[in-house]
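Duplicate of #3305? Posting structure anyway:
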């Protein structure tokens, strides 16, 4: 078997499905894509330029240009014989292993009693991969109306700060109509980072779209139940707070989120090369400048307009968010005080007065501080701690604080009284008595 052919059949990546080699079968091109190729040709674009813009092979482009009329793809019959009993399993399993004929062949032999050859599996996978390619090509050019949809995703890069090498998670949100984007670096992809990144994007755009499309990240959704997404409760409350509808990509169809996928790649390829950063703050300062000076004003390869110009037509259609309080600051969370008089907030722990052990308190973020309330009154304030598994303890919240205060008041009282008059006949007790009384209480 030809080595290149073996690699083509074995290798596939989610979101970048290779176009199948189907021999004399008709090209796997949807009607909209075929018309787009013909339109580009009428604009005097070369075959190579069309191939680059569409992501297709030049042979496929030439094949489309030779035909004066589009014809739909006709799926070949699945080979019969030994593979027929496994056809349903094959159709379900193939997308999960990215249409790798080699993996499917190994699993068929190992667990399903298949005794046929690899070539039979390879031929059966071709039409399945072709159908996925058709769907992805159609969805790749899916356009939305102004203000209708944005797409959000994370990317990961490795950079060097003054303190040494570091991994930065880049959040990117791309508006579907204008292709204007917001990007920001974070230390992690946890919920607090995700929500803060959204609110910064809304502030940047002056509003949000009516729906936002996501990949299946755990901070957004934990899967589906009877075909419906099981939203993370905090994220669902966040979406309701801002008034947008969250939506998920279809499984194994990463191209439905192609606009923001392209945005993440653009940041990695255009912003990062040749840059050095002092720290994460400097990283984000440079990134904001690059967005305004480069990304917003370049001619977009798909729309053939500057994103900032198209945004002028989209801005009015956005849901207005200016003046609305931050979800992070408006959200109140209930916590039960543990026996160590600490409450857990975002994987860190903060102290409250020890007499509240076992009581329910409410936590609300105010700027860069946590306010902890009991029965409507603030009982503790702490600065928000970065990272995880950190402790923020105020010694005045502990049981020993009352004894220290009593000792201080007792030692100060005689000195204050001496300036006025001397009291006689007052019994003087050892301070340990007060500590015992406090412990008994």
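Output from current build:
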């Amino acid at each position: 078997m030809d080595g290149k052919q073996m690699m083509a059949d074995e290798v596939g990546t989610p979101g970048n499905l290779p176009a199948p080699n189907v021999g004399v079968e008709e090209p796997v091109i949807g009607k909209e894509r075929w018309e787009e190729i013909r339109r580009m040709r009428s604009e005097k674009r070369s075959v190579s330029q069309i191939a680059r813009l569409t992501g297709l092979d030049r042979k496929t482009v030439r094949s489309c240009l030779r035909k004066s009329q589009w014809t739909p793809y006709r799926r070949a019959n699945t080979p019969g014989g030994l593979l027929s009993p496994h056809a349903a399993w094959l159709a379900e399993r193939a997308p999960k292993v990215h249409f790798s004929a080699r993996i499917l062949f190994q699993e068929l032999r190992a667990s399903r009693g298949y005794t046929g050859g690899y070539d039979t599996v390879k031929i059966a996978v071709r039409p399945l991969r072709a159908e996925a390619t058709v769907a992805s090509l159609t969805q790749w050019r899916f356009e939305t109306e102004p203000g209708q949809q944005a797409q959000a995703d994370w990317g990961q890069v490795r950079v060097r700060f003054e303190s040494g090498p570091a991994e930065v998670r880049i959040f990117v949100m791309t508006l579907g109509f204008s292709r204007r984007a917001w990007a920001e670096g974070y230390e992690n992809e946890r919920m607090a980072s995700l929500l803060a990144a959204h609110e910064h994007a809304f502030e940047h755009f002056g509003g949000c779209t009516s729906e936002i499309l996501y990949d299946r990240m755990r901070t957004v959704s934990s899967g589906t139940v009877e075909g419906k997404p099981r939203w993370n409760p905090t994220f669902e409350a966040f979406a309701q707070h801002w008034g947008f509808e969250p939506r998920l990509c279809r499984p194994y169809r990463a191209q439905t989120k192609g606009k923001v996928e392209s945005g993440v790649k653009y940041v990695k390829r255009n912003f990062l090369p040749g840059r050095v950063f002092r720290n994460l703050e400097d990283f984000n300062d440079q990134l904001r400048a690059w967005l305004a000076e480069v990304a917003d004003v370049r001619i977009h390869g798909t729309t053939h307009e500057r994103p900032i110009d198209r945004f002028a037509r989209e801005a009015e259609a956005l849901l207005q968010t200016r003046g609305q309080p931050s979800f992070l600051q408006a959200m109140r969370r209930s916590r039960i005080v543990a026996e160590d008089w600490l409450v857990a907030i975002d994987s860190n722990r903060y102290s409250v007065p020890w007499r509240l052990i076992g009581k329910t308190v409410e936590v609300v973020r105010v700027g860069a501080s946590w306010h902890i309330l009991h029965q409507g009154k603030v009982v503790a304030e702490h600065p928000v701690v970065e990272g995880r598994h950190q402790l923020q303890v105020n010694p005045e919240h502990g049981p020993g604080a009352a004894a220290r205060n009593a000792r201080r008041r007792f030692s100060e009282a005689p000195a204050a009284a001496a300036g006025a008059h001397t009291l006689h006949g007052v019994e003087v007790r050892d301070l340990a008595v007060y500590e015992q009384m406090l412990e008994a209480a």
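Confirmed duplicate; merging threads. The chain has a mean pLDDT of 79. Residues 99 and 129 are 6 Å apart (CA to CA).
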